[in-house]
Amino acid sequence: MVLMFVTQVQATTLTIASYPNFDAAIRAAIPRYEKLHPDITIRLVSLSFYDHHNAMTSALATGAGLPDIMGLEQSFIGRFANSGGLEALSAPPYNALQYQQLFVPYTMVQAQNDRGELFAMPADIGPGSLFYRSDLLAKAGVVLDDMTKTWDSFIDAGVKLKQKAIYLVANASDLKDIYIRIGLKPGEGIYFNQAGETLVRTERFVRAFTLAKQVRDLGLDARLQIWSNEWAEAIRRGRVATQMTGAWFAGHLSSWIAPESSGIWRVHQLPEHSYASWGGSFYAIPKAAAHKSAAWDFIRFMTLDQSMQQEAFEKLDAFPALLSAQQTPHMAASINYLGQQQARLIWKDAAANMPVIIAYKYDAMAAEVVRKQMDLVLDNNKNITEALEDAERQIRHKVRR
Amino acid sequence: MQQKLDSKKYSALRKAKWIPYIYLSPFIVLFIIFGLYPMLFSAWISLHSWELGSPFHQMEWLGLTNFEYVLTDEWFYHALYNTLWLSLAAGIPQHLVALPLAALLFRMTSQKRHILLCFYFLPFITSSVAISLVFGSLFSRDFGLLNQLLAGLHDLELAGIQPLSWLFPEQAIDWQDSSHIRWVIAFVVFWRYVGWNTLLYLSAMKTIPSELFDAARLDGAGFWQQLRYVTLPMLRPMILLALTLSIIGNFQLFEEPFILTAGTGGSGQAGQTLAMYLYATAFSEGDFATASATAWLLFIILFTLCNLIRRINQKDYL
Known about the structure:
The structure holds 2 protein chains of 2 kinds. Chain A has helices at 22-36, 49-62, 74-81, 105-110, 134-139, 144-147, 151-163, 173-179, 203-217, 229-236, 249-257, 292-304, 306-316, 329-332, 343-353, 363-380, 384-400, and strands at residues 12-18, 40-46, 69-73, 121-133, 242-246, 265-268, 277-284. Chain A is of the alpha/beta class. Chain A folds into 2 domains: 12-125 and 279-348, D-Maltodextrin-Binding Protein, domain 2, CATH 3.40.190; 127-277 and 357-400, Periplasmic binding protein-like II (D-Maltodextrin-Binding Protein, domain 2), CATH 3.40.190. In chain A, strands 1, 2, 3, 4, 5, 6 and 7 form a 7-stranded mixed sheet that branches. In chain A, helix 8 packs antiparallel against helix 9 (203-217) and helix 16 (363-380) packs antiparallel against helix 17. The model of chain A is unreliable at 1-8 (pLDDT under 50). Chain B is an all-alpha fold. Chain B has a domain at 66-139 and 175-314: MetI-like (MetI-like fold, Orthogonal Bundle), CATH 1.10.3720.10. Helix content of chain B is 72%, strand content 1%. Chain B has a two-stranded antiparallel sheet. The termini of chain B are far apart. The model of chain B has no long low-confidence stretch (mean pLDDT 88). Chain A binds chain B through residues 50, 53-54, 57, 60-61, 63, 79-80, 83-86, 223, 225, 227-230, 233-234, 239, 286-287, 362, 364-365, 368, 371-372, 375-376, 378-380, 394, 397-398, 400-401, and chain B through 50-55, 65-66, 69, 72-75, 136-137, 140-143, 174, 176-178, 262-264, 267-269, 280, 282-288, 290.
């Protein structure tokens, strides 16, 4: 590929803004990259997850303090991709869509706007799975295959667990979060279709809300918010039997949430052959970046170089978005914490089956509206139909501004 | 010669005219850059449609559409209601406790007073993040100290019976749910600012002539009578100032509810304040123009309330 950039003769300082632990991959790559490119010096600016994304939002809004490369997490990508402040990587001289078939199918679409333009390159992915405590399931006499057959059987297993004073899930709304991602028609996002119409009153949302409400009414959830201290404590003490989340959760479990529970946690695909992704990291170039050519070169190095992706996978457990990087013995290696389970193969399978979901500009806002209505259904017994009608009305109002 | 001297004097006087401005200039320059410019810019963008990341020249004039949007957004009213609720629930007890507390401290020896005041003032100078995290743990449903205390009182056995079981709940209270979260936030805010108000009132009390208290004592006035007939009337300007500061502070309430509800506003956004609504509009929805319009509406509300207090003061209602 011929890039139509002006060659830079002077030493270039490439500024990269990122967040933990995504920054670890960059930090690890710096010595090798600088050795390969003696004319480039990399300056990594890392802030905490929310501070980083807030800082990038402000930088894009004001046009000041923009880095050459910004790391972005999947939940922010829809809004940033539609902001107009990022370089369209699908356009020349990048023409990045030519690499689409090299990546896990669903990941690149996440960084595209509704016109199909690409604004960020995927680095790692977060295929989701069901984490479960094998000892707690055994204690309640729950058979895993029966439990994961359908969502109804998942709830039935929760009833058995409750008899042993164990919660099925941390929060009933987890079921809603997954179910709304299932069975999307081509061109549909989670909350909007291609015509920009809201989908929150479809059967998908009704069923998602109903499942969550059923779990709450049966007393099967611990009513805990993920990442709260109480949630971590409940997981540590074995009060919650399952957690549906991304592959990276294994690292959190083994490092700080429940290191003493080594060997009793396992993973399985989500109930009813569902596939959902939690997170994923991307690199983007702001339109106002000073060194776009060098930035693109570095992004290619981090995302298209098989050895770099494999190194991040092996050392940092960053699940590679690049398909060729998944062809490594590390993929089939058993994980000690998960009772020697070959869990990465399960996540690889989940990634391969993940539905392609188009990100729309107002997704984050719609998610917040739906979350609020879900809370009202779960905590205040609001009627589901009424809640979804209200959600639709609120989303329409917010989109119309 | 005299003419020369006069001319020198005149020139020195002319220079002297500029000297105050030169001394003031560091503040004025910094105020223009960091105070006035952002304020005017915020007013300007509140009247435009501005896509995040697009250059300023692509801004589209909308007039008052952003204000109209906010004023027809039910979330705005929900946040306004929460803010008003918290202002009253956290604000009124602050002053009802701070006033008698200051009067009590005023009667103490200065050594005792300083030690106690330090303790009351400590929450005000402690990081709000640390405070919110500590209270988050105290109010934890399953592992919090408060629920353990309530459960202990419920289960307390005396001569084979549980005399307090009817008074205290059997189940652990979920302080994060929509019916409790506002009380938790109000309590934290009250606890944090009661010391600050006590200090304000105590400072004002020190300016009251001691002869007035002596005269009241000679007339047989006790603690409460002195408070009612001497201290309160003399403190009126300070009470109005403290109320104004409380209103401004409570309407800008952000850190405590934000951390206690993990940034979400809690279940059903029952703890979302106006400042959190503004923050969510800017940083979650990426709409800085509407967020700016919200900020100006917040300013108008505060300006009106403060003006109301000023008028009350002028009309001698208190």
